Amino acid sequence: MTPTIRSFLPLLAVTLAFSAACTPEPQPKEPLGQIPSATTTAKPEWIPFAIRAGKPVESDPREKHLADLRQLTFGGENAEAYWSPDGKKLILQSTRDGAACDQQFVLDLETGETKRVSSGKGRTTCGYFFYPKGDKILYSTTEAAGAACPQKPDRSLGYVWPLDPYDIYVANPDGSDLKLLLGGPGYDAEATMAFDGSRIVFTSSRDNDLELYTMKPDGTDVRRITNTPGYDGGAFFSPDSTKLVWRASRPEGKELEDFRALLGKGLVRPTKLEIYVGGVEGQNARAITKNGRANFGPYFLPDSRRVIFSSNMDSPPELRGAPNFELYVVDSEGPATTTGAPASERITFYDGFDGFPMFSPDGKYLVFASNRFGTTPGETNVFVARWVETEK
Q1: What is the pTM (predicted TM-score) of this model?
Q2: What angle do CA 225, 133, 278 make, to 5 degrees?
Q3: Contact 4, 101 (CB under 8 A)
Q4: What is the pLDDT of residues 364-379, one digit of tens each?
Q5: Which of these, 102, 198, 365, 372, has the minimum number of CB atoms within 10 Å of its CB?
Q6: Which ranges of the chain does DSSP label H, i.e. alpha helix?
Q7: 70-90 burial: b if 16+ Cβ within 10 Å, else e
Q8: pLDDT tens digits for 194-220?
């Protein structure tokens, strides 16, 4: 999850300053391969059907984990597509249909029908289905602060994200019966749900930092689960509902001063983020990337051990123009390399943006967003592929 669909996409058109001292993680000699699967608590009622939405497109032969690639959206900005528990639909955010800023849509993977499910007011982000039944959706919106789109941030401060006044809402899957789930001053967004339906995790500025919190599905029993200065966000539960994976910054010295100054202005600078894993109460948190780059959009594989994420780790730090974001897989319990983190395996090879990956509830398909096959600069679309494991 991320504040808006544009959150990482502007990185493709602006210059970023990174530490040249960071060494990219060495690649494993062999693919990470198959790890014995864990038992999921999601228990989706998966009914086999053909994905007929969109059209088939050709994948790069180097993308050996991705088969039967299909493009699901065409034109504009479409991203953060997340599965329904039965695997038949996706909820995503898009500027289609003339929307001035991101709205939430549900896409039927069998018919291709796409319907707006948000109110059309304000800016929305981070749509997600309730698990395990899919009988509700949740998303964050700024509509309580006004029907217009929030103002864009001042780029004289460099590349920053606006922390717009989002509140978390719940509605029926068709968008009806919209109700406030969690509100208050500041930023409440990036909400996702455990596969067993027990808790919702989200990011909030309510305690004058950007930390992770959890709550019950009815919005009660709010608990803060991270307590380190910096940005903790974009969290997802593991399929067995025993772990969390998220992105985090840990600024120190002048970087921490910069972070706090921007936070006071309702902004955050996301150019250095690492991927963390920990328990569902935030315990035993540890970084599983240590490359000093922009790592984001993590999601567990079905084994509740490996993690897929997006990163510009292979984009030269001195690059002026368009950093290259690719998908990678890391074994969160693998041995540490010289960087102090496990080695990663590169999954995509498109020279542009690939991000926001999520596995289907049965683990057979991967959905992600990409600039590939775009017809205009910055066009981002949603793709789905059948996941192929490789042997060691």
Answers
A1: 0.88
A2: 25
A3: yes
A4: 999 999 999 988 888 9
A5: 198
A6: 254-264
A7: bbbbeebbbbbbbbbbbbbbb
A8: 999 999 999 999 999 999 999 999 999
